[in-house]
Design goal:
The protein is mostly beta strands. It has no helices and three strands. Strand 2 (about 30-35) and strand 3 form a beta hairpin.
Length: about 50
Amino acid sequence: MPGAQVIPIDGKQIKGSYDRNQSKSALHVVSAWASDHRLFRRSCQSGR
């Protein structure tokens, strides 16, 4: 595709963020980097 850009996406689970007592899922962080536009985006989401 002409003009298409690859945007790397990285996801991580935050160690120790899972709550076993309340059966809550762990916190996850997703990051994306668009180098042509010098744009960085990070989003945090928890299952709570």
